[in-house]
Amino acid sequence: MTVLHQIDPVALDLGTWNLPLLGSIHPQIHWYGVMYLLAFVAAWWLGRRRVRAGRLPGVDEAAYGDLIFYCALGVVLGGRLGYILFYDLPTYIAEPLQVFKIWQGGMSFHGGLLGVVFAAWWWSRRHRLHLFDTVDFVAPLVPPGLGFGRLGNFINGELWGKPTGGEWGVVFPSDPALQQLPMQQIREQFATGALDQFARHPSQLYQAGLEGLVMFAVLWWYSRRPRPRYAVSGLFALLYGLFRFVVEFVRVPDAQIGYLAFGWLTMGQVLSLPLIALGLFWLWLSRRSPTLQPALSH
């Protein structure tokens, strides 16, 4: 069964405002931004539960609020910087103002991950905690945000997959072969089955399911009991690296990069290989590492 993507990326259109000094502006709230908000709310709520259970000894809810704030900055700044450096540096050099248009997409998970690790290091240093005790605490809170982010990609009609080659998939009006057609014409042709050949893998939904739902279920279950230092972080890195590497086989690479080698290797896969290696290393390292025991904060 084929489905036509018809979701408006704008969640709320606030109309045109004429303001002194600023002139005419047209503020909009995009679903992509809403997904980021839901990601942070989910992480905050889940993390509070873990703090109350004493899973980060000596840390109260106020200190945890600071950690979430720092990590949120790390996600946004690191994700944007990572995308620019890893995926599309020439475009942003030519048009620097594109940096601020995050509602159009252009966020890198790997850059966001580095941003979160830096934020966790900064916060851990201030609170005299081992970095990986903090990272192990944060890791199970991340997958819901990954899932929401991929849903945002789907709503935006971006980062879609390869043609399915069958009578199923999603037809994206943003497809280069269709984007010049009026939406009404696309609807009419789709109704006749003429656009079935353009059906693509909804790779965003594959990633939302694997990186979001499956990873959250596994990590939340695994971290319910105290685990040795590095273990939760290692499992997170390993699962994400494997899931991302596999889905990249049916996902279209960024047009400005294409395939890097062999006619199939993508930048996403290249960046995921170190995560797989790190995940395995951290899991091995956890075998000889101490286990942080819960202690209710006061």
Automatic annotation (TrEMBL):
The chain crosses the membrane at residues 29-46, 67-87, 107-124, 229-247, 259-285. It is found in: Cell membrane. Keywords: Cell inner membrane, Cell membrane, Membrane, Transferase, Transmembrane, Transmembrane helix. Catalyzes the transfer of the diacylglyceryl group from phosphatidylglycerol to the sulfhydryl group of the N-terminal cysteine of a prolipoprotein, the first step in the formation of mature lipoproteins. This is Phosphatidylglycerol--prolipoprotein diacylglyceryl transferase. Its EC number is 2.5.1.145. It comes from the Bacteria. A 1,2-diacyl-sn-glycero-3-phospho-(1'-sn-glycerol) binds at R150. Pathway: Protein modification; lipoprotein biosynthesis (diacylglyceryl transfer). It comes from Lysobacter yangpyeongensis. Pfam families: LGT (PF01790). Belongs to the Lgt family. One of its GO terms (molecular function) is phosphatidylglycerol-prolipoprotein diacylglyceryl transferase activity. HAMAP family: Lgt (MF_01147). The lineage of its organism: Bacteria, Pseudomonadati, Pseudomonadota, Gammaproteobacteria, Lysobacterales. It is an enzyme of class 2 (transferase). It is a multi-pass membrane protein.
